[in-house]
Automatic annotation (TrEMBL):
Pfam families attached to this UniProt entry: AAA_33 (PF13671), DcpS_C (PF11969), Macro (PF01661), zf-C2HE (PF16278)
Top-level taxonomy: Eukaryota, Viridiplantae, Streptophyta, Embryophyta, Tracheophyta
GO-annotated molecular function: DNA 5'-adenosine monophosphate hydrolase activity; double-stranded RNA binding; mismatched DNA binding; single-strand break-containing DNA binding; single-stranded DNA binding
Name of this protein: Macro domain-containing protein
Gene3D superfamilies according to UniProt: HIT-like, Leucine Aminopeptidase, subunit E, domain 1, P-loop containing nucleotide triphosphate hydrolases
Region Disordered, residue ranges: 211-230, 487-547
Coiled coil spans: none
Biased composition (Basic and acidic residues): 504-517, 533-547
SMART domains on file: A1pp
Amino acid sequence: MDEASGPKEGNVVLAILVGAPGSGKSTFCEEVMRSSTRPWLRVCQDTIGNGKAGSKAQCLNSAAKALKDGKSVFIDRCNLVKEQRSEFIKLGVGPEIDVHAVVLDLPAKLCISRSVKRSGHEGNLQGGKAAAVVNRMLQNKELPKLSEGFNRITFCQSESDVKDAVKTYGTLGPLDNLPHGCFGQKNPDSKIQVGIMKFLKKTTVPVDTASREKGIGNSTSQIPGKNDSCCKDIENNSSIPNDTKLESEKVEGRAIDYAGSYANQVSLDDTLTLAFPSISTADFQFNHEKAADIIVEKVAEFSNKFENARLVLVDLTHKSKILALVKTKVAEKNIDTRKFFTHVGDITRLYSTGGLRCNVIANAANWRLKPGGGGVNAAIFNAAGPELESATKEKVKSLSPGNAVVVPLPSSSPLFTREGVTHVIHVLGPNMNPQRPNCLNNDYNKGCKILQDAYTSLFEGFVSIVRNQAEKPVENNVNLERKSLEFQDQSEGCSRNNVTNTDQKSKRDADHGSEKNKKYKGAQDGSELTFTDSRDQKVDSEHRRNDGGISKVWGSWAQALHQIAMHPEKHKDDLLEISEDVVVLNDMFPKAKKHLLVLARTRGLDCLADIQNEHLEILKKLHAVGLKWAKKFLNENASLVFRLGYHSAPSMRQLHLHVISQDFESKHLKNKKHWNSFNTAFFRDSVDVIDDISNHGKATLKDDDKLLSMELRCNKCRSAHPNIPRLKLHISNCQSPFPSYLLQNGRLVSASEDTL
DNA sequence: GTTCTAGAAC
DNA sequence: GTTCTAGAAC
C-alpha cells in the first residue's frame, strides 16, 4: 500500500471506473451521485451517443468539459486495459484534479450472472454471449497501478467493498479530498499471474488426455469432472468474504481463487462442446450403417475446422448400435479424439450426471419444432422448459429435412442454469418411417443427401457459435457492441441459409439506434425465405456448404451466377454457351483482355470447398469447356496466354472456372485484391484442383486474406510494385517468361501448345 | 462482385 | 495529388 501523500483542498475528482460488464459500475455511480453533495457527471459510453453507440472521443470531450466546469466526473466504461485508461488519465493532468480509479474487481461469476440477467442495460450485452464476453474481457484485464497516473486507486473485491467505496465517495463533499494511494487491494498482480498459469497448466491438460484416452476406448466418456469440481471447490472458497488486511497467506489464497475462476473459463469457454444425438436413426428408422458413415464423414469434415471445440455423439445406452458403429468407423479414420468422441448418457443431463460440459446440444427435432413425440425431442423440450419452446417459436415455425436452426437458450431455462447449455440446435433429418410425415420410402439416395445436409447444417450452426465465442477479446464497450453486431450479421447469414440463429429479442427491443434494426430486418427477411421456397427445398442447405467450417454467407449481389446457372434460358443473350451441365459467359467485369467464366450448373455446388469425389466429372467438364474456349480465342489472337482456375474463396455463389488471359489489361482490374486473386496461391489452377480431387477427394484451399493483400508482384518476372498503376505499367512491358511453376502441368494454355 | 465515400498515408 | 483502406450499400 502506498503512502498517502498530502491531498489538496477540494480537488475535482476524475474517477475512472474499472470493471467488467455486470461489475456494477453504473450502479456505483448512481448510488454515489444520489447521496453526494458535490456535482458529479457520469460519462457513460453506452448512453453518450443518445441511442447510438458512443465513441471514446465523445466521452473524452464530455469529461473534459465537465472537469473544466469544476464538476467531478465518473468515467463509466470498462477500462480494463491500461491503454483504454490512459487517455482519460491525461484529462486529469493539473494540480486541481485528482485522478482516481475505482476497481470493481468482483468474481467473474457474479458479473456474468448479472450481465446475463440484464436486458434493458444501455450496453446491450445480452444473454448467453455475455458470459463469453465477460470472460474474454477479464482474461485481458490489467489492474490499474498508481504509475499510470492515478492519485488514488480503490479496489473492491466483494460487494461489501463496493458498499464501502460508495460510502467513501458518496460522503465526499465539495471541499473534501480523499487520501492518495492504493486501497483495498488484497492480491498483488504478479502473484496472481503465476497462480493462474500454474493452475491452467494443471487443469487444461487432464481435460485433453481424459478425452483422448477415454473418448474412443470407453463408451462412457468422463471428461471434465475432476478439474471442474476442483474449480467449484475453489470458487466456494472465494465466495467467503475476505475483508481482512493484507497478509501473505491471504495473498496466496486469493491467488488460487483467481486461478480457479480462470480455470473455469477454460472448461466453459475454451472447449466449446456440441453434444448431438444420432439423427434419424431412432424413430425415423434410417439405416444405421449408412447413418454411421455419414456421421463419421461429417465429423471428419468439421472436426479440423476448429481449435477449442469438440463434437460428442451421445446415446442413452451402452448397447447403442449407432454408437458402436460410429466408434468402429471413426477409429479407422484419423480423427482427433479430443475433437470427437462418443458418450453414453442423457443428453439433457450431461453435466449434472456425466460431468460432461456441453454448451450446445442438438435436438433431433420434428418439422413443427414442437415438444412431445418421444425420444430426444421430448426429453430436451421437457428439460429446457417452456423457454426453449418460446425461443424457438419466436424465430421459426417449421424446419424442412436436412436443415438445422440454432436457438440461444434463455438463461432462465433449467438446461442453461443446471447444465450450462447456452444453445440448442434443432435438426431435422430424413424420415424412413412410413408412420411419420415425409417418408422417403427407402430412397437412400435422397435420404443420405438429406442426412448429410442435416449434419452439415448442425455442425455449421455449432461452428457459428464457436466462431462467435472465439472472437478476439473486446477492448471497450464500443467494440463490444460491434462484436455483437457482427454476430448478428453472422446469424443473419445463417438464417438465410436455414441455420437460423435466433438472437436475443431484447436486443431488438432495446432502444439502440437504427443501424442494428436495419441489420436485424435483414435477418428476418432471410429466415422467411427459408421455409417458403418449397420447390427448391434443398437450395438453402446446399448453398451454404463450403469448407465445412465457416458458414459462408452469400449476399444478394453474389447470387447472379447462381441464378444464371439455374435458369440459363432467362439470360440467353448474355451467355456464350449453354449445355446440360455448364454455362459459359464473359465475366461482367473482365480483369484481362479475355476473361470467361464457365459455370457448373450443379445445384448446391457453390465453391471449391463444396467439391467432393463425386464432382470430379463436372470439374473435368468445366476444364474441357474452358480449354475449348481458350483455344478458340487463341485462334483469333495467338499472342494470348490463358490460365484456368478457381478462386479459393469466391465472392460469387455457384462454382465457376475462370478462363483468363494473362495480360491483365483491363480497366476493371483496380485493386490489390483483384490482382492477387488471380496471381497468388488464392487462385487454384484447374489442373491442380482436378489432381486434388482425384488424389485426396477434396480441393486444397488457400483462402487466407493475407494472400489477397500481399505485395503486388509481376506474374512473369515476380518483381514487386508499389501500386496498381505502376504494376500495370510494368506488366504491359515485361518480357520475362512465365515462372517455371506455371509452365508445368498445363497450367498455362498458349497458342504453341494449341498447335501440338 | 461493384460503387461510393471519407480519411489516412504517402 | 494519388493510393489505400474500411465501411456501407447494392
